[in-house]
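Dear colleague,

Thank you for sharing your sequence with our group. We've completed the structure prediction you requested, and as agreed, I am returning the results in plain text so they can be pasted directly into your records. Please verify that the sequence below matches your submission; if there's any discrepancy, let me know and we will rerun it promptly.
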Amino acid sequence: MAIRNSTAAVVAVVMLAAATLSSLASAQDARPRRPQADSPEVAPDRHVTFRILAPKAESVRLGGGDIPGVGQGVQMQKGDGGFWEAALGPIDPGAYRYRFDVDGVSVIDPRNPSTSQSNSNAWSLVYVPGSELTDTRDVPHGAVAEVTYYSNSLKRFRRMHVYTPPGYESGTDKYPVFYLLHGASDSDDSWTSVGRAGFILDNLIAAEKTRPMVVVMPAGHTRPFRFASRGGPRPPVDEFTQDFLGDIMPQVEKGYRVYTDQKHLAIAGLSMGGAQTLNIAIRNLDRFGYIGVFSSGVFGITGRGFGAGEGPTWEEQHQDALGNAELKKGIELVWFATGREDFLIETSRATVDALKKHGFDVVYKETEGGHTWINWRQYLGEFAPLLFQETGNAEAQSAP
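Please find the predicted structure tokens below.
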């Protein structure tokens, strides 16, 4: 009898719990559901509509520096139901960052899970298809890993993104390695999110336009980013260079199947990353066979702007390397590209002139556009096919 009473009690508890859950579900279903915004909406004609539900807001603006026509921001229009909307286009194919300013508060798009990280904040990300270079296409795809490592140089954990080409995981071959640096205020996520580097390499490799390679995208900032005061003193220690040479390169060479000789090493960067590229490569000319600088140069080389200040000039700091003809023999390529509307174009021109004066054979091109990811994705698409071609041909000829 005791067993029966116990069983009945358990059944009663279960039935009561089920009834309670059913009542809660019914109550939730009865509550009015808030309408949802469809954002961003990318139309086949490449017009993009951005929306956000903010019924109590007095002003909402759309911000996104790379989106053509946005500039300092676009005022969004309030419609029925508290929806704010802005339509732009047609927009050229590519990836674009954006945010909403709601009554002075910057927010990402709550209806869009795609994001891109900067050094100290996040952006929403929209992709407009139509580019053979950057689209997600039906080709073999590599992998992009977020790699956490401990920097002995900086005494803390750091992160980098690493692209491995299609077939890397299942093979045993070694690969060339390309170090790709981001710009000021960005992060190690930027080249693979808004920069589309992984898809660009996938598409170039599938088209047999570039050699399969490992691409390493480190974090160029070692602390929260702040614009340095113009004319101020240079930092006493270059923490990123310490981390790059002392930790990043050894981590990559130990953890990945990559070549370590000069003919299989490339380095390039945009804006701040371009300046870091020059600082690292010129002091280590015997280590890198390929050097690329996008929308950048030696900051302060024109005598004004960022990097201009007291102390020895960049050329004076690097005079031993710049004047060493023996060190230049292993360099296969020095490549610069800058947009004609870029605020650093004079910096690029002056840097190219300085390198040529010191005997470097520099390839330099000027394009349309300014200091934007629109150009930097294109530069990557042009620079990557130039890498490791000579070593690739030689290895192919010597293969059994």
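Summary note from our side: Residues 179 and 267 are 5 Å apart (CA to CA).

Kind regards,
the structure core
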